[in-house]
Amino acid sequence: xxxxxxxxxxxxxxxxxxxxxxxxxxxxxxxxxxxxxxxxxxxxxxxxxxxxxxxxxxxxxxxxxxxxxxxxxxxxxxxxxxxxxxxxxxxxxxxxxxxxxxxxxxxxxxxxxxxxxxxxxxxxxxxxxxxxxxxxxxxxxxxxxxxxxxxxxxxxxxxxxxxxxxxxxxxxxxxxxxxxxxxxxxxxxxxxxxxxxxxxxxxxxxxxxxxxxxxxxxxxxxxxxxxxxxxxxxxxxxxxxxxxxxxxxxxxxxxxxxxxxxxxxxxxxxxxxxxxxxxxxxxxxxxxxxxxxxxxxxxxxxxxxxxxxxxxxxxxxxxxxxxxxxxxxxxxxxxxxxxxxxxxxxxxxxxxxxxxxxxxxxxxxxxxxxxxxxxxxxxxxxxxxxxxxxxxxxxxxxxxxxxxxxxxxxx
Length: 411
Fold this sequence. Notes:
- The chain has 4 domains: 4-18 and 171-316, Molybdenum Cofactor Biosythetic Enzyme, Chain A (3-Layer(aba) Sandwich); 32-41 and 138-169, no CATH class; 48-131, Molybdopterin biosynthesis moea protein, domain 3 (Molybdopterin biosynthesis moeA protein, domain 3, Beta Complex); 323-394, Beta Barrel (Beta-clip), CATH 2.40.340.
- It is 20% helix and 33% strand.
- It has helices at 4-13, 152-160, 199-210, 224-237, 254-260, 295-313, 367-371, 404-410; strands spanning 20-22, 37-38, 48-49, 53-56, 66-74, 88-92, 104-107, 111-114, 117-120, 130-131, 142-144, 167-169, 173-179, 183-184, 195-196, 213-220, 240-244, 265-269, 272-273, 277-283, 286-291, 318-321, 323-328, 332-333, 339-349, 352-357, 374-378, 384-385, 390-394, 400-403.
- The longest helix has 19 residues, at 295-313.
- It starts with a helix and ends with a helix.
């Protein structure tokens, strides 16, 4: 069996970053910056009020209470026509530029106005309730580094600095195929010996969540001619092809037979549990991932091999999910010859992650995966861990934070 990190290294060494292009900000979520972004101007671009209130000279408000003459009102989106001088104030709304001469804003809750006179109940200090120009970002400063995957919050920042068409790596297209005579699509009544195809909907959703484009190739039974034809179609139309099932050692594992004809796909027995059978290489020049057939194995293989590879193709700096140190609530027994991924529910208790099994751990038991929020990663050479033992928890519902170098060098 091949060690986990050796397979990860082989997979990541075999994929490449996709080309750069500029995309509208509305279509950039989930994509990865191809270049550093520097702020072309200060954010905010001018000093402005952080509160509804009165722009004043702070010295005029000390000691409180004091009274000033209101000489103008300024709404957001407008600028003052007059200057604040000693003994005067300008009524101002949140976000409006700070008028010339003013050095503080007194919030409206600390005032009362009668006619053109305002009574200041609480004294202000210089800079109070004022957002300085460049207080968030100074012109020329680094906003985001190349390799940053764009969340909705990143998009907000890019818009604030005037980057409306960020340069990113292209979104990959992934073709997804389920295989086997035993699987039937959703909505089909189950005949004896048949099961519903849970792998493809699960993979399609994982890929959609990742932000890639998908081609649903459906289900192909154990027929070599049909399988070869649809794999050729997938390889011709997608950047990556995924299959589930058909890569084990059985006589009817058609995927193994077809992809082996190309000479560019290796069938590996990986020293992990679940997801021991795994195929990777290229089919007609297109990267090919042959995932196992059991549904939990599909997810483990996706998380450890396919997802990081896709993120690398997208140009991301961080490829692997976050791991935290936790404590086991119960004893666990595992296979010492493999790295074992146990589905766990981890809760933060007194600043410590405490993990318990989410249910059955067999590779076909998908329900526990739906309940879980983490994998307890038990390393090779460990036959079991007692309650209270420390264990790494891979938080598979969290974003990725670990780089290729961190993971491969650690292994």
